[in-house]
């Protein structure tokens, strides 16, 4: 079975904790003014602008003008690629954790 595709831009975009936090905020609220987003994230406008440029390039957010305000909205579809790719590993962890649990039980019984 071939590996699901996920663009490098999406991975790069979500690799940064500030960008992940921005996506979480945008996921909870529909349409957020850039100033409110900066305030909630606790970052300055120049830094936020750079983060939003990465998110826009990855197709994860859209920007629209509302008078003098810029408002942002999440576009979740590119995250589907990331989710599909990460799903490959869903079955990996329970088995590894169970193996670790068994190992720890065996070694603790030996002492």
Automatic annotation (TrEMBL):
Residues 1-94 form the HTH arsR-type domain. SMART domains: HTH_ARSR (SM00418). GO terms for molecular function: DNA binding; DNA-binding transcription factor activity. It comes from the Bacteria. PROSITE patterns: HTH_ARSR_2. Keywords: DNA-binding. It holds the Pfam family HTH_20. The keyword Disulfide bond does not apply. SUPFAM superfamilies: Winged helix' DNA-binding domain (SSF46785). CDD domains: HTH_ARSR. This is DNA-binding transcriptional ArsR family regulator. It comes from Actinophytocola oryzae. The lineage of its organism: Bacteria, Bacillati, Actinomycetota, Actinomycetes, Pseudonocardiales.
């Amino acid at each position: 079975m071939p590996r699901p595709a996920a663009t490098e831009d999406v991975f790069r975009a979500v690799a940064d904790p500030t960008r992940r936090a921005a996506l979480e905020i945008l996921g909870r609220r529909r349409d957020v003014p850039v100033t409110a987003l900066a305030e909630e994230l606790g970052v300055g406008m120049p830094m936020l602008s750079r983060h939003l440029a990465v998110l826009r390039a990855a197709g994860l957010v859209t920007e629209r003008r509302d008078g003098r305000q810029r408002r942002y909205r999440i576009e979740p579809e590119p995250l589907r690629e990331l989710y599909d790719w990460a799903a490959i590993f869903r079955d990996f962890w329970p088995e590894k954790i169970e193996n670790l649990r068994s190992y720890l039980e065996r070694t603790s019984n030996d002492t």
